[in-house]
Amino acid sequence: MSIILRPDQQRVVEYRKGYMAVPAVPGAGKTTVLAYLAADLIAEGAPDPGRILIVTYTNSAVANFRSRIGDFLDARGYPRHQGYEVRTIHSLAMNIVRERPDALGWADTFTILDEARLNAILERLTLRWIGRNRAVWESLIKPGLKGPIRTRAEEQWEGRTKDLFRTLIQSFKSRRISPETALGLTRHLAEESALRWAADIYVEYQRELALEGAVDFGDLMLGAAQLLAMDNDLLGRLQERWTYIFEDEAQDSYRLQEQVLKLLAGPDGNLVRVGDANQAIMGTFTSAEPDLFRRFCREASVDTRPLTMAGRSSPDIIELANGLVSWTREHHPEARCRTALEDQSIEPVPPDAPFGNPQPAGYTIFAKTFETYDKELNEVARMAARSISRNPEKTVGVLMPTNAMAGTIVELLEQQGVKVRQLGGPTAPERQQTTLDMLSVMDFLAVPHEPARLLKALGNLMHLPTVADAPFAAFLAQCRPEELFFPLDGSKPFETLFGACPECRGDIALHDALEKLRTWLPQAIIPADELVILLAGDMELKGEELTIVHHLSLRARRLLQENPAFGLPDATASLAGELQAMGRFSDSVYDRKGFKPLPGVVYVATCHSAKGLEWDTVYVTALTRAEYPSMAGDKVRSEHWFLPDDVVNPEALAQAELAEVLGEDPGTDPVSRAKFELISERLRLLYVAVTRAKENLVLSCHLEDRWRKPGHPTLAYTQMKGIIDHRQRAGRA
Amino acid sequence: MPTVISGATGAGKTTALMQRYYQLVRGGARTDQVLVLTAGAAQTSLWRRGQKLEAHGPIEAHSFFGFVQRELNLFWAPVQEAVPALSTWVKPEFLNVEIAHHLMRGLVESSEQEFHNVIKASPQRVAIQIASNLSTVSAAAGLTPAEMARRLALADRQEKGRLYDLIHGMLEVYREQCLLAGILDYGLSLHLFTRVLLEHPHYLAHLRGRYQYLLVDDLDETVAAEQDFLAALAMQMDQVIYAFGTDGGHAGFMGADKASAYQRFVVGADVQELPGSYTCTPEAFAFGEALAGRIGSADRRQAPRQKFRDIVEEQISADLRGEMITQVVEKVAALVDRGVPAGEIAVITPHVDKALEVTARQLLTAHHIKMQNVSLSRRLVDEPYARAIITLAGLVHPHWKIPRDSAGSFSNAMQLLLKLDPVRASLLGDAVWRLGDLPDLDEAGLRRRIGFERSEAYEYLRNWLHDARRKEWGTDEFAQAVVAEVMAPLVGADLKPAQLHACQQLLISAHRFRQAMERFGDDAYGHEYIKMLTEGTVAAEPLEAYDPAKDAVTLATPFAYLSGRLTSQYQIWVDITSDGWYPSDVKELANPHVLSRRWEEGNRWTDSLNKKSRQANAARTVKALVRRCRGRLILAECGMNAWGMEQEGGLAEALGDLIREGAKQA
Predict the structure, then answer these.
(1) Average pLDDT in chain A
(2) Distance, in angstroms, between B418 CA and closest chain A CA?
(3) Residue A107 and residue B321: Cβ atoms within 8 Å?
């Protein structure tokens, strides 16, 4: 596999040692360039006797890298897998910790809490804490609220308090503050201080985890950082193993991650960090800190070699994206937002480049303002459907601000008979099907005398879209399952059903499913983890499905270890609560070979989950100030309507307090600062969304939201619409 | 001068030692004059079969711990003289490991907060480490709890110093309580044997009167305390013969000290080397050496001197673990089709999880191939009939507060005890759970649904339970009554041997628990035992011990395979990219290396030492495995582990260069 490198790419692949930053515009081909560089270095023996470590964000990115590096090595006559390792950051942290869990005081059988369990623990601890401290907790709510409004405020405040605790616990960890230290640092703070509350919860939370021998992802990173910092031998050994460190998506890094990678590289080592500060969009819900990469690019000892050319998008789309950048930097009415985007322009590739920028006929960017939210979504769905039907060989993406809105548009598209796939939201139903099938069977086997469970299990085993419509449904809903499966009168099993539903007798799939359930029933007294595997074997599951069920079995085993008295009903109920985590596992399994949008399918995603992807046609929707706040007066989610102005954003206040107790500069007016950071991040999100498009781009917004309240387009939309309208007029002239 | 029969795995050391034994006996020695010490119960039973002898007296073959227990029993009086706290008890009671863990857990829970400020481990795991890894290993090394705590504190980071003080205190309390109760765990037994009995002025002389010959197998697996005993006894013997495995020492995590054994007994002895191995080919032997060398090598980019293309028959590589397991089973089936007996095939993996075990068994059964799992570990609480007994115990004693979050346990009990189908059992179980008792069938409207035939059995059970509530039971009595008065009449011949075996285990386990608790003067033993059971700490032993002669594929961890001294024509090494192939002996609290005699107090346990120890474990294991392979290897790997994380490295790196064509030369 040989490629012709552009001049900016050529500069990057000439790297041989030291610290290098590669700020890369969207579509610059950074994966290809990094892979090429890695293959060059390996072919020259540069990493020997160690290897290159490449750290990236997702399993599919890992797969992409492996595939590209493998191809380049193959072309150079080297084994595909030699000389490098590719890891997600969590997998790397896991690797490091597993070298010496004893040194950290961790059981070598430690488990990592997933989201669902983490949330369940935090919810329980939060409610318990609120119960013990109700007066002070309630005292933060606006005094004037009464009746149902007051009730709603308390309900929301409960949920937000849990989220607040979660964020602050991660902040403690990312600054390497232990629970005891957190307690000590916060005792002098006012009773109403959320930071002080969070320190209390932190102690209990860590205790719960320790009792289970469990850690969360924050602990994993912290553990890795601690090990490297306290054990020079281990650090030295890992530095010998990984003689080059490459980091992709460095703009999403957070301080612990950066510390780990810098420790591994060593001050005189080899570290290449690739990222785009203008695509830093993870900060408001993770510990990511966009400024870290910017600062890295400016360090004196870092050689910065930007990738400024991109062949992904048409010149018109590039011009629009650059226009967004320059407007933000020069004209954004909020001065504090003018640094939201770095001063970097995307350049189209040279005309003689082998894969030039797309050149669609005419100006194919549009901005449409709709009266209402419903009209906007309906029209966007219609346009996307038409786009697919007219150009089935092209790819289409629809980008929404939230998963909930994405779900709405998915339904609209499905109603139009379009093939849809939702990204980043809840796991696609077909990927959860194996888990759901298994759980419904276990649910029935756990309590087989309940007809509703029987029906559900049958529906899943037979893959019926709606079991209630099946001819046997009416009978089974009212039947006595014991007479169906184990008749006492000497008749054959299932005769009661076939008597009531003669046409069911010829249904082979029904027979097969009933027979399977009958065979499984007596075996259901074995432990749940064994039962699951047994069922998988009988269902003849293979490949991804079998792997998913194996994972379900592992989870069942863990539940049984923590609760030895659990029977099948208890285990099944608990596993049902882990469905979301099973979904994430299913995604990682199905996406392990990488992900690329396919033609003929409309992909619906939030702008966040669209990162790294591209489509021929992209619709960016709901560009309102409600979703993309523009000004200091706009509402933002982190400000709570039920709290007074001085505490309206308790997280921002708590973060400022944390900085203060640590002796850092808390800055002035943390609430405003937090708001401007959010506005800035939304601008970057918009930049990401716009740069997903290759040929055609449609921006849209609405003037009345789904609750019939008047809304306004976000300022950036208005600005871009101005550019678009001007170009369209010029095109017609 | 002692004789040492030295050799690698499969060289025939045990056979040679046995031949010496027969020579001694045929030469006129009585069997009770020859003391044979072995590595464990399985090896002891080989000796005690005493074949090839026409007539003989008792065969004095023991594991060291078995010998210690017997001697303490025999010489209890002098021990009592030296330790007045023991004076109350006519004989010692030996604490089994589960009860030891349970007692220790109670102590750990009272200091939970302190532990969990520093470590992340469940109270049960902490208790196991203290009661087993720390107490046992330090006693095996001849260390007191104070010495143990000091060494560990100095070797580890500062924050754990406080924990080790706490552990020291707990062990002292625990030991004191045990002594007052006349109950001895492994650590106490060793302590009393080595520091009281052996130091008694007449004991060694007495031993000299009993034994004239000393034979020791698996010298490389002996702990320091045993080595002290051997050193003292050997001086008194007419003849001493040791068998020493040059590639052994697999029980290092439990205190086995091979290096010390070598220094103390092999150096300066009359060494008879047994060359090679009867259990593997010369090529495999060389491969094992080369692989072990690669594992410890600083620079794996050095081209190996030799390529071993024939030793590995096939390499299975799959993306997903499920695919890997399926391909492994297909390979097994293909081998059997080719005429390889199933019993000559071993599937060896660092962790035998249910996915592997159950899937493999299912798929092999479909090919009419049997499998036996050497590393089987089940909990007694998972055995259905044991659960049924627990469920009934909860119904008879509601104040025992046995956990029951759902009707599941009641449904299962009804299914088993009344021989009901699962649906009717669920119906009835649900009614029992809601009421907290067995309802009147007519009042509950269930008689017709359950069926008249089983109604009688139900009435019997119901009446029995109501009668049982009239007294307060100890768990062992209750279990006995359930088996005799409920299961026997209701289940009868349908109670399969494996199920009856589980019930018997519960009986025995409960009985031992009661005996132990009575010693502590604790009368809460009824529900306390149930608590221990429902915590999952009591293991279930399989009905049938592993039978190497059975024509079934062996599934084992490397340690289980080697401990069982198994050999196979084909070994399938599974999950070779897993770091489980480089096991660490070091836990968050217990470090057997720091507790060994050769450790210098004050030294720190470093990453370099840790890495060397893991490499040494891996090298020793693979060498020993290869030496037990009479044919070829199959290697299996997968790219993603069971938790969805990428998996690279492990043994694959060291192996790759040895067997891969066209590897890049340095």
Answers:
(1) 92
(2) 13
(3) no
